[in-house]
Amino acid sequence: MASGEFTKAAQLSDVPHGAKLVVEINGKPILLCNWNGKVFAVSNICSHAEEKLDCGRMSNGWIACPIHGARFDLATGKAKNPPAKQPIPIYAVQLVDGWIEVDA
Length: 104
Ligand code: FES
Hints:
The protein has 104 residues and is mainly beta. Helices cover 0% and strands 44% of the residues.
């Protein structure tokens, strides 16, 4: 659930294209993902068995869970294949003066 307030999460230069960065905002583990120059903020916790996603492969607008291979759409959080069925939370992102800000 978003707080309605954007919080500085990282500098954009820390998350270049193809990179991921784990941050914590309001106690939530959040994974920043830069895919094709667009920054996404998703939960770092897989909806299947609550493993961390940050070591997973990112490609073509999705991130794969490194444990059992479920893929999640970075824009919507939806699970694209089993074993995950539930989406992961996603958070709104804005870029301000070279900073990535996240509403978490
Ligand atoms: S913990 Fe992520 S797919 Fe099983």
